[in-house]
Amino acid sequence: MNDGVVTYVEAIRFALRESMLRDDRVVVMGEDVGLGGGAFRATEGLQREFGPERVIDTPISEAAFTGAAVGMALDGMRPVVEFQFSDFLTSGMNAIVNTAAKMHFRQRLSVPLVVRAPAAGGFAGGPFHSQNPEAWFLRTPGLKVVCPATAEDAGLLLAAAIRDPNPVLFFEQKSLYTRVKGTFEYDEDATVNGAVVRRAGGDVTVVSYGAALHLVLEAAATLTAEGVECEVIDLRVLSPLDFDCVRTSVEKTSRCVVVHEDYPDYGVGAEVTARVAERLFEHLDAPVRRVGAKFWPIPFSPPLEQATLPTAHEIVDAIRDTAEF
Amino acid sequence: MSAAISSEQGRAAFLTEAGYWLHLIRAVEQAGRRLYLQGRLPGSFYDGRGQEATSVGAALAMGPDDVATPLIRDMGVHLVRRVTPAEMLRHYLGKTGGPMEGRDGNIHLGAFDRGTIPMISHLPEMLPVGLGVAVARRRRGLDSVAIGFCGDGASCGGVFHETLNLAAVWKAPLVVVVERNHYAYMTPERVYLPIAEISSRAAGYGLRAWSADGNDVSDVHAVVTEAVAAARAGDGPGLVEVFTYRMHGHGAHDAQKYVPADELEAWGVRDPLMRWRARAAEEIGWSDEQQAELEQRIDVEVTAAVQDALAAPYPDPAELGSSLFA
Question: Which of A68, A76, A108 sits opposite B166 (nearest CB)?
């Protein structure tokens, strides 16, 4: 469809458009998605092309429109709901974690719902426009959770999420929307599954995803000069977690660091660390380290926010310490 | 099922059918309550004693492609939509062969293939879900309407207000049936309701509103049928407030000591089954013999259902982990 270079947010838009062209059960709904084209332009032009029946502007009523989307999905439609910011997921959380996620378990009913939620900080959004709330949802059986780090994955995984017969929570990274570029490809065989190795190396396994992956790749380049070779894993899909990919790497490196923008406390870092400790203890030559945001709300003022979110410097230090342990 | 049942024949058919469902609810609920008191029914048992006319009247106003979101006091909807008494009791006992296969219990059930959506406990979260199903069916060319049930207590929740507004903006085919039973678990309505009629709120959202006598199955049916017809015709959503009363506690574990005795007495004489019988006698000459025959038939049916449910096996836990995803 587009062989040129696209940004992360353009890949999202192309995936929505391609999915809508291929399947007329796909509709997009949310605040400002139609006339406005989306707060981050992800849906720009879609209402012009597909009309207001398929690109549906909603009132500020997350509980009602997410609930309505669950109903549409129950009847076989493929609604893609946009939350303007992932911070607002709390306002529609029941429909996602209680109604949608438990429906197949309770009555074997398929709920092909996608919830798109722009997450991540780094641009003075303050406590309510900067959060990474994935951990709130990862403890929900029946929900798939995705967080792409590249433009390719943003497109591939969003289209796969729309084809998936289950509810999928799709965390986009605001800080990557226009910063990361790649190509867009629609692959009808792609599924919501699997981590990938972004950089091969024999010394330390660094597990990451989302915006933080780019800091990790920077850190890995820095550390090469010091003779430390990182193997960088991009989880891509946070639930179900592809632990086999982590296992294969840690069995080789014997060292593991987990890096994400979310708090290390109680989140993906805690889960990966626990699994490595439980299942790969005999392979480890160093304690598993975690790097993430400090455990307080994301503050507004730029120096305060910088002091809160993980930095490339902290990541380099954590990996170096682990390599030298 | 037409709005005003004008012909004598139609009225006789309606009253006969409604009478069957009203008595069936009561018998199934009595059986369930008994099983609970005998210690054979896990959890608790929640019944809709006093509110039977609401669920039956509303469910009989549904067409084949319509969808409903029945709640705690609405067993009539399940029965009218052909969940059998045996399936209901298997469900309550946590056995196989109920609509939820033991994954969920008591009043948390639905049978999507029969037009009901399994409720979650958070109220009234099912209102927008019903709306969504009806909207989707309309897009498939069906003329579906959703009936969303809601108590007076749950009408205080944010999603009630969000959904009314959304439904009005979308001109969605949703009829919200507010069951005004005067209690939210243990709390009397004066604590949570500052207005005389919840239906007065509908105008503020751009919805048409109706009121009905919730203990009179014919009145509930006539009014909900009118609201459903309006929604089906594309006139937009509606709200029907039905005035009724919760005769039992929240569940069988609740002795409702907080309820004044005179209040119970006053509503007790308005019992929906008695009201139905008086009306049936007057309008279609329902006789004592017919009544005895009906009660006998239901007794046989429910006794068999209890035996079936008690004999049914429990579900196999082995499948639990593999059924998360479609």
Answer: A68
Delimit the domains of chain A by residue range: 5-183, 196-324
- Comparing CB atoms, the residue among A64, A66, A99 nearest residue B120 is A99
Q: Does B133 touch chain A (CB under 8 A)?
A: yes
Cβ contact (<8 Å) for A95 and B125?
Answer: yes
* Nearest CB partner across the interface for B128, out of A68, A102, A165: A68
Residues in A closer than 8 angstroms to B96, CB to CB, are none
Give the gap in angstroms from C-alpha A61 to the nearest C-alpha of chain B: 6
Q: For chain A, how are helix, strand and coil distributed in percent, rounded to 5?
A: 40, 20, 40
What is the per-residue DSSP string for B172-187?
--EEEEEEE-SEETTE
In a domain, B322, yes or no: no
pLDDT value for B248: 97
Structural domain span for residue B176: 8-313
- Classify residue A95 by its DSSP letter: I
Chain A residues closer than 8 Å to B117 by CB = 71, 74
> CB pairs below 8 Å between A and B: how many?
129
B17 located within any domain: yes
Residue B268, pLDDT score: 97
Q: pLDDT band at B5, cuts 50/70/90?
A: confident
Distance CA B118, CA B107 (A): 9
Percent of chain A with pLDDT over 70: 99
Name every chain A residue with its beta carbon within 8 A of the beta carbon of B120.
94, 98-99, 102
| Contacts for B58 with CB less than 8 Å, ≥ 6 apart | B68, B76, B77, B147, B149, B177, B220, B221, B224, B240, B242
Please list the residues that pair with A314 across neighbouring strands.
Answer: none
ipTM field: 0.97
Residues A88-111 have a mean pLDDT of 98
The fold of the A196-324 domain, in CATH, is Rossmann fold (3.40.50)
Q: Considering chain A, what percentage of its residues have pLDDT values greater than 90?
A: 99
Residue B95: CATH number of its domain: 3.40.50.970
Q: Please tell me the predicted confidence (pLDDT) of residue A78.
A: 98
C-alpha to C-alpha distance for A28 and A143, rounded to whole angstroms: 19
Report CA dihedral (B17, B22, B23, B24) to the nearest 10 degrees. 80
Number of domains in chain B: 1
Known active-site residue A104: no
Q: Please, where are the H alpha helices in A167-256?
A: 211-224, 243-253
Measure the CA angle with vertex A158, ends A153 and A160; round to 5°.
Answer: 95
Q: Return the pLDDT at B14.
A: 97
Q: Domain A5-183: give its CATH superfamily.
A: Thiamin diphosphate (ThDP)-binding fold, Pyr/PP domains (3.40.50.970)
In a domain, B320, yes or no: no
Residue A2 in this model has a pLDDT that exceeds 90: no
Task: Say if the Cβ atoms of B166 and A76 lie within 8 Å.
Answer: no
Q: Please give the pLDDT value at position A53.
A: 97
Contact flag A165-B325 (C-beta cutoff 8 Å) = yes
Confidence of residue A108 (pLDDT cuts 50, 70, 90): very high
State whether B324 and A106 contact (CB < 8 Å): no
Contact yes or no for B132 and A67 at CB 8 A: yes
Candidate from A72, A94, A141 with C-beta closest to B324: A141
